[in-house]
């Protein structure tokens, strides 16, 4: 058995032994020994293989698998610029704390820095500080040499955050020598699972920036809110319910769930914060996860008169740019809520219900006038989201529309997004990975995100097809920029060309050319019909929209919702 075949089989065996079950493979010559070994492992039922043409899309597909808790997925590429295309998803996995293992084929070390084709001496460290661990596996020469199982097990452990580290991406660069194809001396024997590795190197974690110490106990008294950012999980909802404090939950927090009506997340919270007697009275915020969506929440957490308590799940968890109290465990709360705290929670709940109802009224009026908008689309998608079909949502406007207009959903409903660095790239590929790992998914995105990652819905013949419905708001450009400073009337002359970037592309024709079932919904009835009965496999619901009035629409929504919240507070009922 030649050295590269032997090494590839050892690597794949170690991956399976470490519990890896989903692998995304891109075509390439240098990675051929790994491809043969993975194919044999799939034939034996030891893992599932997904082949993708585009390395960037492949990495985001692996990221989607990791976001479901089924990871880490392994992404396998050949050498050279293929590795550079992994960086966007790697960066997202790093900041988002998502387990991901990047397995890149390379020339042997002796050929780096030479004229060897498709070879870069930068490759082993190309992903830099974005990975938790980087390691090399040189070609060994024979199957009986030191088995790389320990290195692979350590890589998988580091990706998972074993030993107390924060989950994230890991880079394993494998030097493979010629020949790159199996020989005839038994190299084609069926693959069989190996025994578990005899040793496992725990992932090295960064030095802790806080001391775990004893569990923090929060005293009653300060007017407190619980803020659930991306990845907070159900702990934020449980803490808010136990303490009797208002819960401001981002849609991807895992905390925006229905339950006891008295302890549901505050509706339209980013607008309700402006109501007199609510946001201006907050004295303490307990934060779980990573809140990044809302400027009003960012301003709240940045106020010097607000004490911030951050529940950091890992020592390396990022935090705000200010002094906070950090703790690793969800805090205990002293005693029971008193009359003042119960009134505080009731006020937030009244204001939240009134604000959310006001948002609905504006969106419904727009729909009756024949205008489908991003917030309305997000509301309708949220209404059909259940634990059986996870929802992936793109960055930019879609996730903010979901935050604004969606009510709470059933518990254990995965709502996922790439909030680590909040890019639109890779959204369809991420959703495809979620669908493959979960048995089905839906993704909400805009036309630019869809065009950016159309390859994410390109699946080759014979490949497992994700059961994925993509709901695309097609407003011919980047609508979010009209809501920011760039969209102010004084800057109207530069908005379209420099920021909104209209494209004029036929989104339906593009996805139709990829073999995807495409439906266009032009009114609320056709939209609801398309969402209620998605066809199996890959499908796109295209929703045409006009973004020219988006800034005015959001101004109306903010004014109406804040006024409704204030009226509910004044009425006391």
Strand-helix topology:
Layout: H1 3-17, E1 22-25, H2 32-43, E2 48-51, H3 55-67, E3 73-77, H4 81-84, H5 87-96, E4 100-106, E5 133-137, H6 149-160, E6 169-175, E7 217-218, E8 224-228, H7 234-243, E9 247-249, H8 269-272, E10 284-288, H9 295-302, E11 307-311, E12 325-327, E13 332-333, H10 339-368, H11 374-383, E14 391-393, H12 397-405, E15 415-416, H13 427-438, E16 441-446, H14 447-452, E17 468-474, H15 492-500, H16 507-513, E18 517-520, H17 524-532, E19 538-544, H18 550-571
Parallel strand pairs: 1-2, 1-3, 3-4, 4-6, 5-6, 7-13, 8-9, 8-10, 10-11, 11-12, 14-15, 14-16, 16-17, 17-19, 18-19
Helix pairs in contact: 1-2, 1-6, 3-5, 3-13, 10-18, 11-12
Keywords:
single chain; 573 residues; alpha/beta; six-stranded parallel beta sheet; 19 strands; globular
Characterization of this structure:
With 573 residues, the protein is α/β, with parallel strands linked by helices. Helices cover 35% and strands 15% of the residues. It has a 6-stranded parallel beta sheet with strand order 2-1-3-4-6-5, sandwiched between helices. It has a 6-stranded parallel beta sheet with strand order 15-14-16-17-19-18, sandwiched between helices. α1 (3-17) packs across α2, α3 runs parallel beside α5 and α10 packs antiparallel against α18. The protein starts with a helix and ends with a helix. Residues 140-146 and 194-210 have low confidence and may be disordered.
């Amino acid at each position: 058995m030649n050295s590269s075949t032997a090494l590839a089989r050892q690597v794949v065996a170690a991956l399976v032994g470490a519990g890896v079950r989903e692998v995304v493979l891109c075509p390439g010559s240098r990675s051929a020994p790994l491809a043969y070994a993975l194919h044999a492992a799939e034939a034996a039922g030891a893992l599932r293989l997904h082949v993708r043409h585009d390395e960037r899309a492949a990495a985001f597909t692996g990221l989607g698998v990791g976001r479901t808790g089924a990871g880490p997925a392994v992404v396998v590429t050949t050498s050279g610029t293929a590795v550079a295309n992994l960086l966007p998803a790697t960066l997202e996995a790093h900041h988002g704390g998502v387990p991901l293992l990047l397995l890149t084929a390379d020339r042997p070390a002796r050929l780096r820095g030479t004229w060897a084709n498709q070879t870069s001496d930068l490759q082993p460290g190309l992903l830099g500080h974005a990975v938790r661990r980087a390691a090399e596996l040189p070609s060994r020469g024979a199957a009986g040499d030191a088995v790389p199982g320990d290195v692979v097990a350590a890589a998988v452990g580091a990706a998972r955050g074993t030993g107390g580290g924060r989950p994230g991406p890991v880079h394993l660069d494998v030097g493979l020598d010629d020949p790159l194809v199996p020989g005839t001396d038994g190299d084609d024997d069926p693959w069989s699972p190996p025994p578990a590795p005899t040793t496992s190197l725990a992932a090295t974690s960064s030095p802790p920036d806080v001391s775990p110490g004893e569990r923090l106990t929060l005293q009653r008294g300060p007017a407190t809110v619980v803020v659930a950012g991306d990845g907070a999980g159900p702990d934020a909802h449980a803490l808010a319910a136990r303490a009797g404090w208002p819960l401001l939950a981002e849609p991807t927090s895992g905390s925006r769930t229905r339950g006891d009506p008295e302890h549901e997340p505050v509706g339209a919270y980013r607008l309700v914060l402006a109501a007199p007697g609510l946001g201006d009275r907050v004295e303490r915020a307990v934060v779980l996860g990573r809140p990044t969506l809302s400027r009003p929440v960012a301003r709240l957490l940045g106020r010097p008169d607000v004490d911030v308590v951050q529940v950091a799940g890992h020592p390396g968890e990022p935090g705000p740019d200010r002094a906070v109290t950090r703790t690793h465990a969800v805090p205990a709360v002293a005693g029971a809520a008193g009359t003042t705290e119960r009134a505080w929670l009731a006020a937030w709940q009244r204001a939240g219900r009134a604000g959310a109802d006001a948002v609905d009224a504006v969106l419904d009026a727009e729909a009756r006038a024949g205008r489908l908008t991003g917030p309305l689309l997000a509301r309708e998608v949220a209404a059909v989201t259940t634990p059986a079909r996870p929802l992936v949502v793109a960055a930019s406007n879609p996730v903010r529309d979901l935050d604004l207009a969606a009510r709470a959903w059933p518990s254990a409903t995965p709502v996922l997004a790439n909030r680590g660095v909040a890019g639109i790239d890779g959204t369809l590929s991420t959703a495809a990975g979620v669908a493959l790992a979960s048995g089905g998914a839906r993704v909400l995105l805009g036309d630019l995100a869809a065009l950016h990652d159309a390859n994410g819905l390109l699946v080759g013949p014979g490949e497992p097809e994700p059961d994925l419905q993509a709901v695309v708001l097609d407003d011919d450009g980047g609508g979010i920029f009209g809501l920011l400073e760039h969209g102010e009337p004084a800057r109207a002359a530069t908005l379209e060309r420099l920021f909104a970037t209209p494209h004029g592309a036929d989104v339906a024709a593009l996805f139709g050319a990829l073999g995807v079932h495409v439906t266009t919904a032009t009114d609320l009835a056709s939209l609801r019909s398309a969402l209620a009965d998605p066809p199996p496999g890959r499908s796109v619901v295209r929703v045409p929209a006009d973004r020219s009035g988006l800034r005015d629409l959001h101004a109306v929504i903010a004014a109406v919702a804040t006024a409704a919240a204030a009226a509910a507070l004044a009425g006391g009922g």
